[in-house]
Amino acid sequence: MLCGEVADSFTWRRFCRIGLDGWVLDPSTLMKLTKRLGPGLLEELNAELLTLAVERKVLRSRRLRVDTTVVEAAIRSPTDSGLCAPAVSRLTRLARRVKAAGLAARSRLRDRRRAVGKRVRAISAARTLARRELATIDRLTAEIARRARQTVREAHALARSARRGARRKRASLALVERLERELEAAEQILAQTDLRLTGQRTIPDRRVSPVDPDARPIRRGSPRRPTESGYKARVADTGEGFVIADIPERGGPVDAGLLDGAITKAKKAAMQVRSVYADRGFGTSTGDATLNRHRIRDPVIPRQQRAAPIEHSRNWKRRYRYRNGLERRISQLKRKGLHRTRLRSLAGAQTWVGGITLAPNLQRMALLT
User: Fold this and answer.
1) d(Cα 219, Cα 255) in Å, to the nearest integer?
2) Can you tell me the distance from the alpha carbon of 211 to that of 213, in angstroms, rounded to the nearest whole number?
């Protein structure tokens, strides 16, 4: 899609320094270059750009606004049946490719995709026509899980046979290793499905996709969408419009625990941070310890539970309104791609966020110099 937009636009060709008769990169080449860059290099580029902005006195602000947001993974809404069914399909397709390569010729894996798909459609009908039929949904989910477990058992035998055959024939083990990774993912999905069927609704470190191993469910404060599947990003900005954004880890870490990394990166770029503006999620003892460690004497962060007396003053409320500008900045970044990552795994999401952060920082640098 991106390559097509660049090829059809005079403006984008000029921006990318590509002539009218020039050759635009193939999408596969662009994907390989993106993976080769990695999150580490983009992190260094952003840090060097902020340091250069401070040296040229373009970045002079001593105030730092910090917040978090959810970066959705490019996956469907996860359900137990919706995870088991793709696992069966992926294992069946991979097994056919392994057998087509001449490995595990005598091993047998039954194609259960039709039976699983029939029960998935029955679950959709039960949800649409009778929202209270939880027993029916659980029964159908258990039937899907049972067929998925049979497929996993047969795929394990096929993978062992294929590995032995590949060693004898000195063939490539890439397909076998991929099948083993898919088996590991399927076993994790089946384990958490069994826990859910026993009545355990809250599963720690729950996997939500067979293709993205690091995406996790993250609770939000929105009543419309209380839970999203993806990664929690840390976003900070300055008054000049420079952005510091990254995904420190997978899952949904506590907001206050992410404050230290934002201040550390700002100081690493030689910023003189004196005031930190954040919402109530950072107003905990963990956040206070971080502020004391970095010697931030003028934080504007409301306390959780009981408000501090200073929060009722007119001056403090006026200063706290300055934090609202970060919500607008996050909204702009989401329109530019921060809303959903198109790269899989934690490293892919970090690369995605690093590239989206670098683009507006380059624009601000060019505008202010």
Assistant:
1) 12
2) 6
- Express as a percent the part of the chain with pLDDT over 90: 34
pLDDT at position 183 over 80: yes
Q: pLDDT tens for residues 56-91?
A: 998 888 999 999 999 999 888 888 888 899 999 999
Residue 130: predicted pLDDT: 56
Given this model, what pLDDT does residue 123 score? 86
Residues in the chain: 369
Residue type for position 30: L
Tokens of 360: 């507006």
Residue type, 279: D
Instruction: Give pLDDT, residue 1.
Output: 60
Name the nearest CA neighbour of 240 among 352, 338, 331, 366.
366
Contact 304, 284 (CB under 8 A): yes
Q: Which helix (H) or strand (E) holds 142?
A: helix 134-169
Measured between its terminal Cα atoms, the distance across the chain in Å is: 32
Which amino acid, 345? S
Using CA atoms, how far apart are residues 39 and 77, in angstroms rounded to an integer? Answer: 26
Contacts of 346 (CB under 8 A, 6+ apart): 214, 231, 247, 249, 250
pLDDT of residue 131: 56
- Answer for the pair 56, 34: CB distance below 8 angstroms, yes or no: no
Q: Which stretches of the chain are assigned E, i.e. beta strand?
A: 63-72, 216-219, 227-237, 243-246, 275-277
What is the model's pLDDT at position 171? 64
| The one-letter amino acid at 102 | G
Quick one: which H or E segment has residue 174?
helix 174-197
Backbone φ and ψ of 200, nearest 5°: -85, 110
